[in-house]
Amino acid sequence: xxxxxxxxxxxxxxxxxxxxxxxxxxxxxxxxxxxxxxxxxxxxxxxxxxxxxxxxxxxxxxxxxxxxxxxxxxxxxxxxxxxxxxxxxxxxxxxxxxxxxxxxxxxxxxxxxxxxxxxxxxxxxxxxxxxxxxxxxxxxxxxxxxxxxxxxxxxxxxxxxxxxxxxxxxxxxxxxxxxxxxxxxxxxxxxxxxxxxxxxxxxxxxxxxxxxxxxxxxxxxxxxxxxxxxxxxxxxxxxxxxxxxxxxxxxxxxxxxxxxxxxxxxxxxxxxxxxxxxxxxxxxxxxxxxxxxxxxxxxxxxxxxxxxxxxxxxxxxxxxxxxxxxxxxxxxxxxxxxxxxxxxxxxxxxxxxxxxxxxxxxxxxxxxxxxxxxxxxxxxxxxxxxxxxxxxxxxxxxxxxxxxxxxxxxxxxxxxxxxxxxxxxxxxxxxxxxxxxxxxxxxxxxxxxxxxxxxxxxxxxxxxxxxxxxxxxxxxxxxxxxxxxxxxxxxxxxxxxxxxxxxxxxxxxxxxxxxxxxxxxxxxxxxxxxxxxxxxxxx
Length: 539
What we know:
Layout: H1 2-17, H2 37-45, E1 54-57, E2 60-64, H3 66-73, E3 77-79, E4 86-96, E5 102-106, E6 112-117, E7 119-124, E8 127-138, E9 140-144, E10 149-158, H4 192-195, E11 211-216, H5 227-241, E12 251-253, E13 259-261, E14 279-284, H6 295-312, E15 321-323, H7 343-351, E16 362-367, E17 394-398, E18 408-413, E19 423-428, E20 440-441, E21 445-453, E22 459-466, E23 469-473, E24 476-477, E25 484-489, E26 496-498, E27 510-520, E28 527-538
Parallel strand pairs: 11-14, 11-15, 12-14
Antiparallel strand pairs: 1-2, 2-10, 3-9, 4-8, 4-10, 5-6, 5-9, 7-8, 12-13, 16-28, 17-18, 18-28, 19-27, 20-27, 21-25, 21-28, 22-23, 22-24, 22-27, 23-26
């Protein structure tokens, strides 16, 4: 299969290099190589108005749906702006077989000067990043889709000489969760490590934001990528194709309304050319030229804007809170589209006092380990259902790691050399006897605990004793080297599975905590896990 793809790419490259050069006349100043006015009418007639089929935003082009076929049928032209030359093009692409996408570059007289296949530097499912780096400047570039099946593409002409690449995004390590006080983010923000960012090291210069600029990403409104995948693609696009040191935005509001952490807000971004110093950038995912942003996205934008203006003392007025196109030199840009109409409301909301937060749900700490081990008196190997670990494993109080207070439960797991089984460890509460544990109401009830481990691939579950047996919760993998809170709802059957005599549904009005379960593939390494504040709450 791989050889077939290589042969097809080679054939396409040969055909591209020796294709007949089209004759074309110079366009009048300011004219577009393709005017898609009919396409907007067609989109309205077919009910596709929420998605912009073709958007020419300054020098950038975005195409999707009907716009893809029309763009390539008209020649797939990328034009150098007046008085500029093309050194290449950056492409953010959703689709399949994008390795078949080809290009031809022409000089001002229409002569073919270079041809080849678009270099794909990043791929994850249907998400890709493409880069064209010309060996010498050109006036125009024509794209040929060939067998590529493109759903969406954003194309940006590169009009400055391009430095040699430092490193591709795919070669960088994953970001680790190492929060620093100066780059702390609110608890509701999805951190770089959580969405799978690549670690870029020091990027940008220190600054003290006095302005907040709002953008849109000009990506699909009905996104086929998950918010995290779109973040990873945009980071790769900014690094590989645009040559920046990291994602240009400081925060991004996803299609889901959640706020995602971008470049550290204490350092300059890359979101408003010539105006990035002391300017923090927040972008909302979508193309809002003909589509109103979702209310959840406006709420997410408001939340992070409130946090930023309060943290840095940014004035809460329209002189300091701007849309991208309101900056000098960016007036021809449509960004942030219809969000611009929301900015007066945003300023008004920022100047209003926030209502007091609702009272926290009632929480009962079942075991804090501050005074002792409580009901967790048994070694991990005491249960007959525990598999894969040796009798040298233990559980004890420890003050080496604690989420709250000074003490936690330290669990050390050591492999049983006489067993080839993967580990299943049942850390019993109350000897596994329901009579020794607190009865916990099902309605609105949640069981949770804090966990910390330096080991990889450790999974955790809860076992509860129900009226018809024992149920086991879904497994979650613990992140390394950080405290992680895992909680399950007693009244949500989707979070439970049958175990000993159970049916996968909590049927009783009350249950008791049977055990905390740890799972891992067999390893010869000792694994240490810390447990703190085992708790129950109702909401």
